[in-house]
Design a protein that fits this description.
By secondary structure, this protein is α/β, with parallel strands linked by helices. The chain has 22 helices and 25 strands.
């Protein structure tokens, strides 16, 4: 009997061992399939090639949304709607000294726009590339204000004979919701400090206040003057030539019997009028011909970055590093995905840099209208902790560094901005919506008792009471004083000196330099070089290290699988919808149409963002340092 038990015990033990082995093998097979599915081969880079850059949608500091949404948009043929500035500048910088790249081609048909400081960084990269002696060719069916800013810096700028160049200037129009809220019976109780703190105006007015109109007109005029000066210099024109073109375009086109391309050519805004085939022939002459395609040898932005970034990873790098953290979007509490500056995530990145002894300086690149004061304070405190290690902190401002965006800039050793950066807006506010009239319209009465002066004063179904109003306004005023104190300390000025230029007033970078809110005007590259100099690092003795919120292996795997799933999903839907031929409606969208759709998405975006902001601002007990100051 004992022998039989031993026999079966051995059999079961052997089977269990076999099960474990098979289980392990299965996991290895699955893992191998996943890795194989997620890996992509490094493309081959042809010799004597043209680097073709076709920015898609808006140029941003960081992508917004999640990987699944971006992959879904790309699979639909719309692109992600965004191109990161870093991708553009990294590729152009690498191509400058790359013997395999003979020409840089800029195609703007799918680009919808960007802020002027972002465009300036892009244009600076193009200008620097030209120092190599290689040609830059810009081409497009048409050029808007934003695309023309960069295109003007090319050696050769070609417009389609059916094309148009529109320099529409800058404007600032917003939606106002007071009448709509009145119809809904909703009262917006506002608590703020700052004559010019206009972020709350859309909820309490039906039009722009005189103070906001004054500040807005000043900074859009400043943006336009900067634009005209930079573009005119790039094209070898006089600023008044561009102003005349923009002011009289409609009349000129009428006189030219609708020939918009001829008007642009006569104004010397473009080098020549060429069809896409003629542009292709010109690029072949500048680089080399691909006999198989009968076109020029080329590599696109995505493939080129995969090549050069792979080569960079295996190259030897200096031990000393300058940490660069990109902060783009509204400042929000907690963690977050793309498109926002999450207080917890950003503070953790700064802490990571502080604990890394090989990091000799920190550069924080900010593109933000502000947001939560508590999240801003969390980032501010981590920057102070980094400074206490005796390593420099340098701020580089992008399109926006206003309100909370300036709050987190305050402790820096040095602040850099673009002449067109929108900054300042030093002030805070709070909103508390109540809707007693809505309840009355519905026939719902509200009555009861309480134990303290604050009892029942912060209910949505009752008007806000005097004790609650006093409490909230006092909190806002204290927050404003704290804001002034932080800026005064960082800028080495008195409280009253800062208060005179604060009050929620928005300034451009050029004005901010004059007022002492920033130290220097220049690009991110110049800010990094300045940080290295402050840290005592010589050129070539350090590398730039972009710090980003890390994902676990499981999170990264899931993100990649979601992206692939999105692509497969759209391809499947296209195939089934059209009888298996694999063509979807999006596949027929040409570049300009995609750009128009992406621009429309951008134009309707402010309404959606206003609703989302209101949802955040209506949270009880929260105060905000936010600037509604984006020019479109």
């Amino acid at each position: 009997m004992e022998l039989i038990k031993k026999f079966f015990r051995g059999v079961f033990k052997g089977l269990d061992g076999l099960r474990k082995i098979l289980h392990l093998l299965l996991l290895l097979v699955i893992f191998g399939v996943l890795v194989g599915a997620l890996q992509s081969s490094i493309p081959t880079l042809p010799a004597d090639a043209a680097l073709v850059i076709r920015p898609v949608g808006e140029i941003v500091e960081q992508p917004s949304g999640d990987a699944f949404d971006r992959a879904l948009a790309e699979a639909q043929g719309l692109g992600s709607g965004e191109t990161t500035l870093r991708d553009l500048t990294d590729a152009i910088a690498a191509a400058k000294g790359d013997k395999r790249i003979k020409t840089l081609v800029l195609d703007f048909d799918e680009m919808s726009g960007a802020g002027q400081p972002t465009l300036d960084e892009f244009a600076r990269a193009v200008t620097d590339f030209r120092k190599s002696g290689k040609k830059v060719v810009a081409t497009g069916l048409g050029f808007s204000r934003d695309t023309y800013y960069v295109a003007a810096h090319a050696d050769e700028l070609y417009l389609d004979p059916q094309g148009l160049v529109v320099l529409e200037g800058y404007e600032r129009y917003r939606n106002y919701y007071k009448s709509a809220l009145d119809k809904l019976g909703i009262d917006i109780n506002v608590f703020r400090v700052g004559t010019y703190k206009s972020a709350v105006e859309p909820y309490i007015r039906d039009d722009m206040s005189p103070a906001d109109r004054e500040a807005s007109q000043a900074f859009v005029n400043s943006l336009w003057e900067t634009y005209v000066g930079v573009v005119a210099k790039a094209r070898g024109l006089k600023p008044e030539d561009l102003r005349t073109y923009a002011d009289t375009l409609a009349t000129q086109v009428k006189d030219a019997k609708g020939n918009t391309a001829k008007v642009a050519l006569d104004a010397k805004l473009v080098t020549a009028l060429k069809t896409p085939i003629q542009v292709e022939e010109r690029i072949i002459a500048l680089s080399s011909k691909d006999e198989e395609t009968e076109s020029y040898r080329s590599v696109d932005l995505k493939d080129y970055l995969r090549v050069v970034r792979t080569e960079d990873k295996i190259a030897k790098h200096p031990d000393s590093r300058i940490a660069v953290i990109i902060g783009s979007g509204e400042i929000v509490d907690g963690g977050g995905g793309g498109g926002v500056i999450a207080g917890d995530d950003t503070a953790e990145l700064i802490r990571k840099a502080r604990l890394d002894k090989d990091i000799k300086a920190l550069v924080l690149r900010i593109d933000s209208p502000g947001g939560s004061v508590t999240a801003s304070e969390k980032i501010y405190r981590e920057l102070l902790a980094f400074k206490r290690t005796k390593r420099p902190v340098v701020i580089s401002m992008g399109d926006l560094a206003a309100s909370g965006g300036y709050y987190i800039s305050a402790p820096a050793d040095e602040i850099w901005a673009s002449p067109a950066t929108i900054t300042g807006s030093i002030g805070i506010f709070g909103l508390f919506p109540t809707a007693p009239r809505t309840f009355e319209k519905l026939g719902i009465g509200v009555d009861g008792v309480g134990t303290t002066p604050l009892s029942g004063e912060l209910r949505i179904d009752r008007p806000i009471g005097p004790a609650a109003s006093m409490l909230l306004q006092s909190t806002i005023e204290h927050g404003y004083e704290e804001f002034l104190a932080r800026v005064s300390l960082g800028r080495k000025k008195t409280r009253d000196e800062i208060d005179k230029i604060a009050q929620g007033r928005v300034w451009t970078g050029r004005d901010a330099l004059r007022l002492g809110l920033v130290d220097k005007l220049g690009s991110l590259d110049e800010a990094v070089a300045s940080a290295a100099k402050r840290a005592g690092l010589a050129d070539g003795k350090y590398e730039r290290d972009y710090l980003e919120a890390e994902k676990s292996f499981a999170q990264q795997l899931l993100t990649n699988l979601e992206a692939k799933a999105a692509s497969v999903l759209v391809k499947t839907v296209k195939t089934e919808a059209l009888g298996g031929f694999g063509f979807g409606a999006a596949a027929s969208l040409d570049g300009p149409t995609r750009a128009a759709l992406l621009a429309a998405r951008r134009d309707f975006g402010p309404i959606e963002r206003s609703v989302l902001r209101f949802n955040r601002y209506a949270l009880s007990g929260q105060v905000y340092a936010h600037c509604f100051c984006t020019p479109y």
